[in-house]
Amino acid sequence: MAWLVLVISGLLETAWAIALDRSAGFSRLVPSAIFVVTLVLSMAGLAYALREIPVGTGYAVWVGIGAVGTALIGMLALGESASLPRILCLLLVIAGVVGLKVFH
User: Fold this and answer.
1) Is 2 helix (H, G, I), strand (E, B) or coil?
2) Per-block mean pLDDT, blocks of 10 residues, the chain (104 long)
3) Which of 72, 68, 71 minimizes the C-alpha distance to 94?
4) pTM for the full model?
5) E-only strand ranges, 11-100
6) C-alpha distance from residue 50 to each of 44, 54, 55, 72, 99 (Å)
7) What are φ and ψ of residue 25, in 5° steps?
């Protein structure tokens, strides 16, 4: 259960990062509210998962999921560069996250 909560929390990290960007410095109400809610849920999920998963592993997986998710949304939906080197770097992050899970 802790791993499932950790993955969901990582996805929520992606949501709050995108909402933070869309809030335009907290000047837009709806994205700002989405940011606050998803940030709190993401942190609460991380805290729950860390009750069973070591902090180094849990935090690295959480950040990795959030970073890859945010970068993918940037590339797929927000017009950011989807160059081969960037995609290869994201694959390295994914390999690291999978490795942390496998060798946990």
Assistant:
1) helix
2) 97 98 97 98 98 95 96 96 95 93 85
3) 68
4) 0.90
5) none
6) 10, 6, 6, 26, 18
7) 70, 35
